[in-house]
Structure formats: structure tokens, C-alpha cells
Amino acid sequence: MDQELHVVYGSGPVGTAVVEELIRRGKRVRVATASGQRKHLPVAVDVVQADATSAADARRVTRGATQRVQRDEPARLSALASAIPALAARCASGCSGQRRTFDRDGKPVYVRAAHGASMHEDMPMRGVGLRSTTRRAMTEELFAAHRSGNVRAVSVRASDLFGPHVTESLVGERLFAPLLAGKSVPLLARLDVRHSVSFIADVGRALVEVGADDNAYGRAWHAPNAPAVTLREFIALVAEEAQLTPQVSALPRPAVRALLPILALFTPQLRGLEENIYIAYESYIVDHSRYTQHFGDHATPLREAIRTTIAWYRGQNSEFRTQDSEGQMA
């Protein structure tokens, strides 16, 4: 086993995908989480408890590390907003002297691309609302630390995630779980606009590829995606691979705007979602040509990624079997 130590903050879907890619490459891995619990992580991984806002904890868990991966969690962005100064201090002092620090800072939060144009890494980050401004502030602090010379930093961005362990996403558990159980799926989205989606394993690999390249630092990169399709086409592929007939409806945008504040009272993950609801109702195409020109295009074909995702869900729950129920996409 390679003796280079890689520290990953968090065991969510992105952290897990990074861990799996690093292990596949024979690297030593330490995962820092708020609870310190192993959960689904492999036994080969060293799991430690750490406070993400503590510089002292950062020094402790990253001691001897070559690389460190930090990723955001959309559901926690509201809480993180007040912690940005502490996170910045942690990045500057807790990781000072490390050769590489890199980050997965969520989906692109640029100014809206007009008429379905693709979004690229050099577009201005002008997302509005607490989630977007928090992401932007964290990214700015990260690169400020890079420019100061305290750390070497880089950012990898992805679109809406899907795949094993993905929950909080337009095409995550909220879509796959009821669909595979033969239940009706009400979506807060338009079905007939193209939308880039990111397979979680491709994002994990992109983070590792970028983190290993000295020439990649100091800028942002978009993880590679399969060609964008409409949500209706995505669901049709899921239905074909799962051998079922989907029962899907799409709530109109005005209804969603009215319902979200109420739903958010009972579902914390929905809080702040209204600020970026346009992402689900307008064309959302992410250009990853910078990445593919430098690292090659390893985006998993969409049907293959969906097949892998279905197999994972069915391995988790026997309820997700082939259904004979009939339905339609409204």
C-alpha cells in the first residue's frame, strides 16, 4: 500500500466516492467525521472524530497528510454560513504547510446561462440566497488561502448528483427510492428541459485526479458528466433498466414556490431551496471541456451509471424489486 496519507472530511456520498477511488489506487485514507463512527466505510480506512470548524482538530487529523479533501453538504450550508470565519481560519492555520488541499464545493452557482448556454468555470459566481452565497464565500476563502501560500488549493464542482449513497439531489434518493418501490414520484422540476447530472463515482475520481496533479491547483474544475438529457429521458432510462413503468408527476413552478416555505418547516433539507429552484425548471448544462482536455473524459455512460445505481438501491432494500404497476409521466 502507498504510504501517502489522504484525509477526507466527511463520509457522505462524495466523501465515500473519494475514499473508494483512493483505496482502488492503493492509498492510505483517514476519514474525519463529526461523529467518528465508521458506518459504511471500509475497514481499511482510519476513521476519526473531528470538528470541521476547529483548527486544532484540523492539525490533529491531517498530521502527516499529503492531501486533504473537504466537501460541502447542501443541507448544512445554512449552518455553515455563520461558521465561515472559523472555517477560513481552520483552512489557513490548521492545514498550513500541507502540500495539497482540495475541495468539492457543490454545484455551480454562477449567473444564469442565457437560452440554455453551457456554464463554464470562468463564469462569475453570482448565485443568490444563503446557500449560494455561503458556497461562494467558502470558495473565495479557500482560494485566498491558496494565494497567500498557506495551502495549495483547488476546487472541483459537480451538477446534481446520483448514484450510491446520494440522498439530497434532484435525481437522488427522492427519485430512485419511490420509483423503484413502485410508488408515485412528485417532482419539483420540469421534465422537458435538459439537465446535466453527475454520477457520484465520476465525481470521486475527478477529485482524486485533480488532487494528484500539481498543475491543476489554484482554479476550479467541472467534474465530467455524460451528455445532458431531459429529466423525462433520465426517468425513462431508469424505468427501462429497472423493468418498471414509472408513476411520475411534475409540480408547476408557481405551486412549488408557494409550497416550499411550508414544506421546509417540516423538512430541514428543503430550507433555502427556493433560492435555486430555477435550476430544476430551466436548462442547466455544465461544460466540463476544461477537465476533459487535461484529464480525459471518464464520464460513465448514463445507462451504465443508472444500472449501477439501481443495483445499489436493490442491494440496500428488498422493496426495490421489479414492479408490475402501471403509471405515466405527467
SSE diagram, text form:
Blueprint: E1 5-9, H1 13-24, E2 28-33, E3 46-49, H2 55-61, E4 65-71, H3 77-81, H4 84-94, E5 100-104, H5 130-148, E6 153-157, E7 160-162, H6 173-180, E8 185-187, E9 194-195, E10 197-199, H7 200-211, E11 220-222, E12 229-230, H8 231-242, E13 248-250, H9 253-266, H10 278-281, H11 289-295, H12 302-316
Parallel strand pairs: 1-2, 1-4, 2-3, 4-5, 5-6, 6-11, 7-10, 8-13
Antiparallel strand pairs: 9-12
Helix pairs in contact: 1-7, 2-4, 4-5, 8-12
Count the E strands.
13
How far is it from the N-terminal to the C-terminal residue, by CA? 52 Å
Biggest sheet statistics: 7 strands, parallel
User: Runs with pLDDT <50, length 5+?
Assistant: 74-85, 324-330
Helix coverage percent: 25-40%
CATH topology assignment of the largest domain: Rossmann fold
Characterization of this structure:
- The protein folds into two domains: 5-160 and 200-222, NAD(P)-binding Rossmann-like Domain (Rossmann fold, 3-Layer(aba) Sandwich); 162-196 and 227-316, UDP-galactose 4-epimerase, domain 1 (Alpha-Beta Complex).
- 38% of the residues lie in helices and 15% in strands.
- The protein is built from twelve helices and 13 strands.
- It has helices at residues 13-24, 55-61, 77-81, 84-94, 130-148, 173-180, 200-211, 231-242, 253-266, 278-281, 289-295, 302-316, and strands spanning 5-9, 28-33, 46-49, 65-71, 100-104, 153-157, 160-162, 185-187, 194-195, 197-199, 220-222, 229-230, 248-250.
- The strands form four sheets. The protein has a seven-stranded parallel β-sheet with strand order 3-2-1-4-5-6-11, sandwiched between helices.
- Helix 5 (130-148) links the parallel strand 5 (100-104) and strand 6.
